[in-house]
Amino acid sequence: MKKKIAVLLLLLFFANAYSQEQNEVLLTKVLAQLKLNKKDIHEPLYRSKVLPNKTANSVLVIPKYNVNESDEYGHDFFVLDAYIVLADNATGKILSHYVEKEAWTSDAMVLSDITIDTGLYQLNEKDRAFGIRVSYSGSSKPNPYNYSDLSLFIVQNNAMKRILKNYQINRSSGEWDTRCAGEFEESTGNIDLDKNKTNGFKNLIIKSKIEHTKSFLVNDNCEEKVTTKNGIKNLKFNGKEYK
């Protein structure tokens, strides 16, 4: 049994190493076509993901430095241009791409993560969107604040289009004494597709769960009172983007 587990772990290790190597090759080919160097990008936030509905293609999110500075205290400040790329996995050829200058800034609100969302955003018979989620984290301990923005993209006639821009899908904030007493609110959103369409695209139903937590001391014990409510918002396609 132990031998089988060891073999399985070894196979997983080599599969992961091969996947990383292939991803590195793909990035190198894409950067060459964009006329970018590896030193131009913020590698910790580079992301790629194979599309589940088109497994021969991958989405790449390439964050290119526009500004990259550090202050005298060692705090990083950078502004990133967003390169969103659809590429052929076998050849590395860019099939479509979208560029936004100065798309993301990391300063007091730290740009903490970027993820590629390949959820089932089948907006009509032909168009399936993919999402880019960008997360930020505040640096204040007594006033914590975090949020994630979601953008949706489609490819039509080899042109990549953004159809939802920086919709705040998740958010958490609060104020407390750093020991116990305080109040916090967390909102988590999910997207459902309506059967009804506007301008040929299904309406988006944003369902949010909003949780409010109040913490307080009772006989030297930190107690919590949690209340929850639900929110709903509808977004419709106006011909260019969802509003």
Radius of gyration equals 21 Å
- Helix content class: 10-25%
What series of H and E elements makes up the topology?
A: HEEEEEEEEEEE
Oligomer: single chain
Q: What's the overall average pLDDT, rounded? A: 93
Number of strands: 11
Strand content: over 45%
Quote the distance from N terminus to C terminus.
56 Å
Helical stretch count? 1
Strand pairing plus helix content: what structural class? mainly beta
In brief:
It contains 1 helix and 11 strands. The protein has one helix at residues 2-34; strands spanning 47-51, 54-70, 76-88, 94-106, 110-122, 128-137, 145-156, 159-176, 182-198, 201-218, 221-235.
How would you sum up this structure, described in words?
It contains 1 helix and 11 strands, in the order H-E-E-E-E-E-E-E-E-E-E-E. The protein has 243 residues and is mostly beta strands. The chain has a domain at 1-107. The strands form 2 sheets. A 7-stranded antiparallel β-sheet has the order 5-6-7-8-9-10-11, with no helix packed on it. Strands 1-2-3-4 form a 4-stranded antiparallel β-sheet. The chain is globular, with a radius of gyration of 21 Å.
Question: Could you name the key traits of this structure?
Answer:
globular; 243 residues; mainly beta; seven-stranded antiparallel beta sheet; four-stranded antiparallel beta sheet
